[in-house]
Design a protein that fits this description.
single chain; mainly alpha; Helix Hairpins
C-alpha cells in the first residue's frame, strides 16, 4: 500500500504535503467519516436529495492520507502495525471476555 501511494504521489511535482497539511487533511477525512456514521447510525438523517456516502470509501480516504503521511516521514507502517498488535496481544490479553470455542463447556 505504501508503494502504491508513493508511486501515485511521485507523479506530481508538488510531491508530499507538509506534515501539518496532512494532519489537517486527516482531520477533514475523519470528519467526513463521522458524518456518514452519524447519518447511518446516529440521530442526524441526511437532508432530502443529499447523496449517500459510502463508509468503505471514507475509511479508505483515511487510510490513504495516513499512508501518505507515513511515507513522507519515512515510517514503515507494516512494521509499526506489527509492533502495535504485539502491544495489544500482551497488554490487553485478559482485558475482555474471550469467546468460547464451539462445543466447549461453559
Amino acid at each position: 500500500m505504501q508503494a502504491t501511494v508513493h508511486e501515485w504521489i511521485s507523479r506530481f511535482e508538488e510531491g508530499y504535503w507538509s506534515p501539518p497539511s496532512m494532519m489537517l487533511r486527516l482531520t477533514e477525512e475523519v470528519g467526513e467519516l463521522a458524518r456518514e456514521v452519524n447519518h447511518l447510525y446516529g440521530q442526524k438523517p441526511k437532508k432530502p436529495g443529499e447523496p449517500e456516502g459510502e463508509l468503505a470509501l471514507e475509511l479508505a480516504d483515511i487510510l490513504f492520507i495516513i499512508t501518505a503521511m507515513a511515507n513522507s516521514l519515512d515510517i514503515d507502517l507494516e512494521g509499526a502495525f506489527k509492533r502495535t498488535m504485539e502491544k495489544y496481544y500482551t497488554r490487553d490479553a485478559d482485558r475482555w471476555t474471550k469467546k468460547q470455542k464451539p462445543g466447549s463447556a461453559r
